[in-house]
Write a structure and sequence with these properties.
There is one protein chain. By secondary structure, this protein is mainly alpha-helical. Helices cover 64% and strands 11% of the residues.
Length: 125
């Protein structure tokens, strides 16, 4: 697995918009994020620039507009973050993590059924 850039919570919000709508212009990103956050357009532009610097985004200039495309996949990034979380808080022991969630009733019956189904699929392969 390749090492992906560290992305802050705010940068992650920007990435979610880009993953969903790429390729997407600065104005479109700003429009979407000003509806869901209290960020100014300047803040959003700063976050976009940071993501480009970190290697998470690429861009092309189309006339007078910058259009952004992700260089990392959402699934790949979330997988890395999940793995880091597991290592950091549960010493890599997924059983301990799931036990904690189940004991604290953080998983619904539907979620538990889904996990059972997923585990059944991995043992059948």
């Amino acid at each position: 697995m390749r090492k992906l850039p560290q992305i802050s919570e705010a940068e992650f919000e920007v990435m979610k918009v880009i993953w969903k709508h790429a390729p997407i212009s600065t104005n479109e990103i700003t429009e979407k994020l000003t509806k869901t956050t209290a960020w100014s357009p300047k803040t959003i532009q700063t976050l976009i620039k940071r993501l480009v610097t970190k290697g998470a985004l690429s861009y092309q200039k189309q006339s007078r507009v910058f259009v952004y495309t992700p260089l990392i996949e959402e699934k790949e990034y979330i997988g890395q973050e999940s793995h880091s979380f597991l290592k950091r808080f549960y010493n890599g022991d997924i059983t301990a993590m799931l036990s904690a969630y189940i004991e604290d009733a953080r998983l619904s019956e539907s979620e538990i059924d889904t996990l059972r189904s997923l585990l059944g699929k991995t043992t059948e392969d």
